[in-house]
């Protein structure tokens, strides 16, 4: 046999081997999914990580052994007992990570999976739903302007892109409050044989929100209650599960710190980076600000997020000027965003550049922020993105001021008080099996 034929035979054998491996992997993956009683795929523009956590909390407290996975500010596996495991990546995140999560964590006793959609491009979203998650319930939290390069320029186009994760012959749940967009989602769901259920925030009252120690939205809680109703979990159990769930690292927790003799309320709302979410958050936060406080907004611009930088530069004079006394720029694009803000009417003397143009120390950042507060109280809000040198200095500083008595989110997830009913049931079953084995 010639060398060419030998090489061809080897290549053919490799191809057959790869196809066989792929087939075995696909069958195994689908088998693990099919064993589940509930599969929830969480998509949308804002609130995906938070909703993933809340829904998982609902299912766990309702007695279902549940595994969840978030992709947000810090990717996490949330195990059946509510304990969180960080996801470590060697390179850039890819949607194939979802396959690894199912293979490693969906064992035979797991009954429910709640998984946040990783995909942005419509084709990848469809692949994620049809092959990777195959959910019977999909959540589209809302439709907002973001990722327009991949998902479309208009809200209607973005709604259609998100609709690629709607299940076939299943249920779509959304808290989108604009009727024309909800109707579009409904038509897209019906085209796949699914029905749309509106998670109306009116079903959530103020008392329901008192169990959260961070800024939470009724729309997110309404999604959790809607899923509870669909799967037969009582309302109070659902609320208890959501209260127990550990919040994402990107949530807004309001804490006051001393900054060079000023009382500064620190509001790290970096995770909200579209216009509607930010304006809504400001509206809900404003009553919580100390009376007479000076409000300072940080525009934290990453060099690889130029479009967001431009978006917020337009938002400051057009949407946020009534709330902000001063604006501080961090990171990149300082000259450009300053020019946009001043051209559209925001006073240049209220804009302060503390990003890449000066690369300030932490001490300078704190001193200049304190100098902007003429009275005793100030409010400092971080916006747009999380990761720049200046934002990380500030975040580390405030984390240090929290002190050693404060627990991280990972430590909170190990608190026995957060243990869900499903885990208690599993432990009882294990104890009974152990007792039988001893008697045998």
UniProtKB/TrEMBL annotation:
| Gene3D superfamilies in the cross-refs | Mur-like, catalytic domain
- A single Pfam family it belongs to is Mur_ligase_M
Name it.
Poly-gamma-glutamate synthase PgsB/CapB
- Which terms under GO biological process does the entry name? capsule polysaccharide biosynthetic process
> SUPFAM superfamilies, per this entry?
MurD-like peptide ligases, catalytic domain
Lineage, top-rank taxon, reads Bacteria
Every copy of the Mur ligase central domain together lies at 44-191
> How is this protein annotated for GO cellular component?
membrane
Database matches in NCBIfam families: poly_gGlu_PgsB
MF annotations from Gene Ontology:
acid-amino acid ligase activity; ATP binding
